[in-house]
Each structure stands twice: as structure tokens, then as C-alpha cells.
């Protein structure tokens, strides 16, 4: 018999000599209860592991989010409600209010020198003298068909075509200017004259159209107010005993006043007066409102 056979014989003997298990019901029930308790303890231990891990990790998570959210927000799981700082809008640039002019018109005083280096009221050179020359040319270009504006002269050699620019202010009045032009008008060897005067704003109050018209060279006559595209123009007609037979007067909104006059006769010897006026009253009224005669400075 070898060693393996000996061991097998000994195991058989032990089995045959072991007493059978007890069949006591109470003992079996007690054994079953102990097994169930061990199983519950095992499951309880497994459940404690993640809970402990969560409790240990919670302070770390709270510390991590404290800089941006409150602890209550982290626990509740709600997003941060802290509003982000809105960039302040830069103040808009506001344009300063337009400066109000404080320039007061110069007022003429006794013994004041004449303006702009003049030796008397008349501007004989410079921009002001040039304005009256332009005014004369504009008047010449306004002569209707059938009439001409020739370069005629008086017997003493003076030209009948005459421009003039003059300082018009008197003592106590603000500075203002008058620009004048006179031209001869001819038709069929008959000669008459046209005259225009444009006065810059003089700070005087506006008057009724006819009162304005009758202030021209102290003229008298019947006055009629005509409407020219909504503009009120006064036309005065004399009986031929004044320097002019007829003239129109108009005051622009800025205060510039324009007079336009006509006469059928002249002082030229051996020249008959015109047989008819150069302009009708309506034509005279329309022309006096023209921008080409409006000189406001």
C-alpha cells in the first residue's frame, strides 16, 4: 500500500465514524437568523461607503465654489444669481449751445471819423463802391425790349450813368449804407431815366407800405399797394411835378429797403422826354422785389 492509498483509507474511516448532524428545529431556526443578520450587516456597510465619501467631499466642493456662489446655492444646486457688473456707458458728448451774438451795431457819434478810411460819406473805392457799380449794371440789364441804356453825358461832360455808395447813418443811428444807381433810358431819340436805391438794414421799425413809399425823397402822390407773389409793394404815382413820375418801394424781411423809380424826362437839352413810361406799375412792383437789388451789407 502506498501513501495515497493510506490517505484515502483514513478519510473513509473518518466519514464512517462522524456523528450525523442534529435535526433540532430550534437550532436550525437560530442558525438561519444568524445568516440573515450577517447579510444585512454586509449591505449596510456597503451603503455607508459612498455616504461617507460624499460627506468627506462636500467641504471640498463648498470651498471650491465659495468664491462665486453661497453655500446655500451650492447645496441647493441652483446657479449663481449674482448679476454681472454691466459696463457703465460713457457719457455722450453734448454739443455746447450755439453762442448768442452779442455784437452791438456801431452807433454814429458826433465828430466820429468816417468809416473804412473814407474822407466823407461817399465810398469812392473798395468793395462798397463796387456794389453800386454792380447795382447799376443790374439796372441796365433790366431795361425791357424797345428801350436802350446808352452811355450819354451831360453838357458839362458828366456821365449820366452814375453809381454811388454812401454811409447813411446820422448821429445816434447804427451804421447802415445806401447804394444808388441812375441810368438814362432811350427810345426813338427820346430819353428818360431810371433810378434804384438799396438801403441796408437800419434797425428802424417797419412801416405800412405806402408810408414807406412816400418817405422816398419827400415825394407825394397817390399810392397803391400791389401784391407780388404774396409780397406787399407800394407804388406811388405823381402828377409830374416831382423828381420822378413813379416809384415802387419794398422792405425785405431782413430790413433791407429798395426803391425803384422812373421818370420820362431828363436835363439833357434838345432831347424830348419819353412818350411812355419804361415800366407799367405792375412791372415796377415786380422788379423792385428782385434779389439783384437786395443789398443787405
TrEMBL record:
Stretches the record annotates as Disordered: 1-34, 73-130
Swiss-Prot/TrEMBL keywords: Membrane, Transmembrane, Transmembrane helix
Compositionally biased region (Low complexity): 76-101
Transmembrane residue ranges: 43-65
Protein name, as recorded: Uncharacterized protein
Species annotation: Kribbella antibiotica
Amino acid at each position: 500500500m502506498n501513501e495515497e492509498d493510506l490517505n484515502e483509507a483514513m478519510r473513509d474511516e473518518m466519514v464512517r465514524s462522524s456523528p450525523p448532524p442534529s435535526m433540532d428545529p430550534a437550532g436550525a431556526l437560530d442558525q438561519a437568523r444568524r445568516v440573515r443578520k450577517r447579510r444585512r450587516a454586509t449591505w449596510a456597510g456597503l451603503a455607508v461607503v459612498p455616504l461617507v465619501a460624499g460627506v468627506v467631499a462636500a467641504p471640498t466642493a463648498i470651498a471650491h465654489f465659495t468664491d462665486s456662489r453661497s453655500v446655500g446655492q451650492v447645496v441647493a444646486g441652483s446657479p449663481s444669481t449674482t448679476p454681472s457688473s454691466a459696463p457703465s456707458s460713457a457719457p455722450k458728448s453734448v454739443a455746447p449751445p450755439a453762442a448768442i451774438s452779442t455784437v452791438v451795431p456801431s452807433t454814429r457819434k458826433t465828430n466820429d471819423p468816417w468809416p473804412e478810411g473814407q474822407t466823407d460819406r461817399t465810398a469812392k473805392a473798395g468793395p462798397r463802391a463796387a456794389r453800386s457799380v454792380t447795382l447799376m449794371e443790374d439796372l441796365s440789364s433790366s431795361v425791357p425790349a424797345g428801350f436802350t441804356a446808352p452811355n450819354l453825358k451831360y453838357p458839362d461832360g458828366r456821365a449820366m450813368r452814375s453809381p454811388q455808395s454812401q454811409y447813411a447813418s446820422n448821429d445816434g443811428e447804427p451804421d447802415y449804407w445806401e447804394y444808388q444807381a441812375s441810368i438814362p433810358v432811350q427810345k426813338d431819340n427820346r430819353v428818360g431815366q431810371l433810378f434804384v436805391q438799396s438801403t441796408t438794414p437800419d434797425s428802424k421799425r417797419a412801416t405800412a407800405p405806402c408810408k414807406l413809399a412816400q418817405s422816398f425823397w419827400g415825394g407825394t402822390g397817390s399810392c397803391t399797394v400791389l401784391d407780388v407773389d404774396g409780397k406787399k409793394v407800394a407804388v406811388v404815382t405823381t402828377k409830374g411835378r416831382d423828381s420822378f413820375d413813379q416809384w415802387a418801394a419794398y422792405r425785405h424781411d431782413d430790413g433791407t429797403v429798395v426803391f425803384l423809380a422812373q421818370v420820362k424826362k431828363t436835363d439833357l437839352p434838345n432831347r424830348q422826354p419819353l412818350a411812355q413810361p419804361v415800366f407799367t406799375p405792375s412791372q415796377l412792383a415786380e422788379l423792385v422785389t428782385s434779389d439783384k437789388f437786395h443789398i443787405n451789407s
